[in-house]
Amino acid sequence: MRLNAYLSRAGVASRRKADELIKAGRVTVNGRPGELNTFVAAADRVEVDGRPVAKQPLAYLLLHKPVGVVTTAHDPGGRPTVVDLVPRDPRVVPVGRLDADTTGALLLTNDGDLAHRLAHPRYEVAKVYVADVEGEPSDESIRRLSDGIDLEDGRTAPARARRIGPSRIELTLHEGRKHQVKRMCEAVGHPVRRLHRRAYAGLTLGGLQPGQWRELAAAEVDGLRAAVARTATRTRSARRG
Q1: What does CATH list as the number for 126-200?
Q2: Which pTM value belongs to this model?
């Protein structure tokens, strides 16, 4: 395991903050200064500022994110964060982001390898959103959302879009651009009034109320790992082909 991932698993810091600790020379592995490309084996001794650290047990939590909570581990402005809503031990971090005014399914974990794969567009993780919009989208608007929208950062990938109410759209995306759903709906003339993520990577909220969370079952974790592994296999096969 790479040193920054080890420190994240130990609850010391996020991977980005761990890189800063390593660069500052505050981390040692078996008594020697750690480097950004250092790998840690099971028997290695890791210390930060002379204090030993150890990996935490892996944890996987599904949170029903409420309105007004930011998707980060710490907010300089003092706003409540998603990490405030789940247990502090073991330390977990959110996978991807939801806007402060967006509600719904959010995965938090300290499994850095799985989190990286789930958050990377290459692995095509499905995210299902329900958007209440202004006006009543036409069939043409739904078709445009499905086919892809030209945004300032490029054309969106094909999505699954359907109307589930006069002013309500369900969108299934495999990308994770910033404010993507809002920008797509704005582009077809129907700005979003309220946005909810119904499902993430096949995980649904069930009876969870806003602010509540649950641990994933072992079968759900296995399903996440299998899903990203299948996508990785397809990608390698396509490259060889």
Answers
A1: 3.30.70.1560
A2: 0.82
